[in-house]
DNA sequence: AAGCGGAGCAACCGCAGGGAA
DNA sequence: GTTCCCTGCGGTTGCTCCGCT
């Protein structure tokens, strides 16, 4: 037996909202509260006299009717923020790399459009997502992926990681990399989430390491590595705050064509109950780091 | 003027997490 | 400990607008 539907789909209106519906919803929420606790979205439509699904009401409010919503085009500054944050935490490859390699777990809001949106007051996750998918992605990822392994592993080559043609790199925004952006953000998130700060048990990768697997201790598996070999990374929990998972492993390989560190998409628990991402290479409490090459054919 | 296709964006869908019962 | 309900999220769809032919 499946889930009970959130509403009677036969008797709810769908599609674009009319001004009258907007007014009714806005009026109801402004007089009854809109913080999500005072209002029960499922039962709200009936109370507000709307023939809409509760989820639809919620979405309409959050994405359009809220008084603090900023309508209109994105500014260059907002472009930069999105690109920067996506650069740091938006890429699937990078994200899995984080998860598997950095032990960065306590991240309920990590890699969320809502987090990126939270850096821009008045913008919603839907806005940012749409904007990214329709404009920024094309703008930034339209170029051919370059092989970063053949380049000097500089921070500036971060842009190459995302396939941004040299000529199209923003000069004054996301990829102007005079400052090591990634670690500062990671550190910030880390501090916010855990209240801890880096110490000698916490690894701090510099951006070069972060974006260039070859600098991060992954063995160069050579031509045979591509889709034939993987690197197994064992991560052992070391803190007392770990609650339910003692260890995990990820399988990564270095795509020689793209320069991407890829994973095979299994076994990574995004919402693990781990309270920090603290990790280290080679200290006495951790067993982190490349442990060798596994013939991936054996796995299958 | 009409038709077509692409871009932009609002809205929907289904899933997962978390809390209450 | 289990089940159910609600919320929040990312991915996707589909409608509307606009420019081009």
UniProtKB/TrEMBL annotation:
**Listed Pfam families:** Myb_DNA-binding
Q: Which residues form the Myb-like domain?
A: 9-65, 66-136
Q: Which UniProt keywords apply?
A: DNA-binding, Nucleus, Repeat, Transcription, Transcription regulation
InterPro entries recorded: Homeodomain-like_sf (IPR009057), Myb_dom (IPR017930), SANT/Myb (IPR001005)
**Domain HTH myb-type positions:** 9-69, 112-140
Under the heading SMART domains, the entry gives:
SANT (SM00717)
Give the protein name, as stated in the record.
MYB domain class transcription factor
Organism of origin: Malus domestica
């Amino acid at each position: 037996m499946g889930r009970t539907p959130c509403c009677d789909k036969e008797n709810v209106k769908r599609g674009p909202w009319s001004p009258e519906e907007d007014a009714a919803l806005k009026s109801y929420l402004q007089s009854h509260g809109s913080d999500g606790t005072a209002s029960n979205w499922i039962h709200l439509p009936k109370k507000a006299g709307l023939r809409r699904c509760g989820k639809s009401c919620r979405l309409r409010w959050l994405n359009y009717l809220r008084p603090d919503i900023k309508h209109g085009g994105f500014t260059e500054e907002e472009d930069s923020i999105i690109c920067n944050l996506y650069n740091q935490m938006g890429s699937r490859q990078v994200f899995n790399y984080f998860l598997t390699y950095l032990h960065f777990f306590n991240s309920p809001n990590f890699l969320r459009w809502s987090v990126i949106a939270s850096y821009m007051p008045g913008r919603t996750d839907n806005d940012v997502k749409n904007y990214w998918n329709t404009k920024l992605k094309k703008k930034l990822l339209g170029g051919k992926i370059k092989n970063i392994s053949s380049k000097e592993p500089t921070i500036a080559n971060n842009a190459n990681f995302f396939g941004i043609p040299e000529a199209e790199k923003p000069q004054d925004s996301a990829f102007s990399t005079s400052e090591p952006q990634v670690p500062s953000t990671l550190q910030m998130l880390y501090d916010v989430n855990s209240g801890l700060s880096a110490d000698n048990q916490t690894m701090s990768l510099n951006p070069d390491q972060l974006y260039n697997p070859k600098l991060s201790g992954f063995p160069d598996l050579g031509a045979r590595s591509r889709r034939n070999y993987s690197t197994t990374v064992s991560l052992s929990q070391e803190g007392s705050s770990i609650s339910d998972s003692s260890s995990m492993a990820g399988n990564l390989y270095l795509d020689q064509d793209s320069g991407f560190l890829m994973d095979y998409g299994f076994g990574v628990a995004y919402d693990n109950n781990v309270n920090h991402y603290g990790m280290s290479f080679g200290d006495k409490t951790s067993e982190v780091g490349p442990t060798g090459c596994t013939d991936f054919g054996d796995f299958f």
